[in-house]
Amino acid sequence: MAGNAELPAIPDRTVSDAVETFAASNNVPKHVAIIMDGNGRWARARHLPRVAGHRAGAQAVRKVIESAIRSGVAWLTLYAFSSENWRRPADEVIDLTGLLRHYLRHEVAELHSQGVCLRFIGERDRFDGDIQADLKSAEALTVGNSRLNLVIALSYGARGEIVAAVRRAIGLVQSGDRSLDQIDEAVFGSLLETRGMPDPDLLIRTSGEHRLSNFLLWQCAYTEFVFQDVLWPDFGPNEFSAALAEFTKRERRFGARPS
Ligand code: IPE
Ligand code: IPE
Ligand code: MG
């Protein structure tokens, strides 16, 4: 594994100064989660097919990764495809899985050279075998990197994740590995797909929708939410830094008495 000191600099092209100022401040959220929404509306506004919106959305993903690295965020989780998105028309699902395949084939080497550690959460067995293999090799290639932990949620649904964790917990009790009393929040959290990850400090949703759409229901118990009207393909460093700025204004109490 290459040490972080040897990593190439990230090009300055797309990153605003505002993002960098957060790197110097000590109130940077450790974990930012993003519901990347609005690709379809972005395309419709331009009289383009929806797939053009998804392609433009993939470009915005590149930019947000750069912004996260520059601002000192340690974990970035991106909601790319929900378990409910399989309900979309077959041609859109084919376009989305095709884009995923392309992204994995063409972006992973670059992410690796930037020091990004990739991890995928979601029902990966619902994807074609070649995509499953690419997910596995991307994780194996980047496992030693530590500049940014990038988690991509693919065919992810929080309710399904929680039900699967309940089944695992029951299995532990039935096998005698744990007593019922030992199934506490920490143990349960370790049975989720996000095991080992900090909970998100900040959740951003674009496109003006104000809902979670089955994303990280357990993990967002005390997350700060920022909703932005921008459509995902138009999301850039300025929107990222605006969300971070909003986060710094929030007083997080976790149920304790206000300070
Ligand atoms: C987000 O954009 C991408 C996915 C959910 C895969 P949408 O495709 O949901 O775009 P809108 O919400 O229809 O504008
Ligand atoms: C949530 O967006 C999922 C992703 C962004 C990947 P949707 O567009 O699927 O959510 P709903 O259907 O508007 O709630
Ligand atoms: Mg949407």
Q: Care to give the gist of this entry?
A:
The protein has 259 residues and is of the alpha/beta class. The protein is built from eight helices and six strands; from the N terminus they run H-E-H-H-E-H-E-H-E-H-H-E-E-H.
Cα-based radius of gyration, to the nearest Å: 19 Å
Helical proportion?
Answer: 40-55%
* Gap between N and C termini: 44 Å
Mean pLDDT: 93
Characterization of the model:
With 259 residues, the protein is an alpha/beta fold. It has two domains: 15-156 and 199-248, 3-Layer(aba) Sandwich (Undecaprenyl pyrophosphate synthetase), CATH 3.40.1180.10; 158-197, no CATH class. Helix content is 42%, strand content 14%. The chain has eight helices and six strands; from the N terminus they run H-E-H-H-E-H-E-H-E-H-H-E-E-H. The chain has a six-stranded parallel sheet, sandwiched between helices. Strand 3 (116-121), helix 5 and strand 4 form a beta-alpha-beta unit. Helix 1 packs parallel to helix 3. It is globular, with a radius of gyration of 19 Å. The termini are far apart. The structure holds 3-methylbut-3-enyl trihydrogen diphosphate (2 copies) and magnesium ion. One 3-methylbut-3-enyl trihydrogen diphosphate is lined by residues 36-41, 81, 85, 96, 207.
Blueprint of the fold:
Layout: H1 17-24, E1 31-35, H2 39-45, H3 50-71, E2 75-82, H4 90-113, E3 116-121, H5 129-142, E4 148-156, H6 158-174, H7 185-189, E5 202-205, E6 224-227, H8 237-249
Parallel strand pairs: 1-2, 1-5, 2-4, 3-4, 5-6
Helix pairs in contact: 1-3, 2-3, 3-4, 4-5
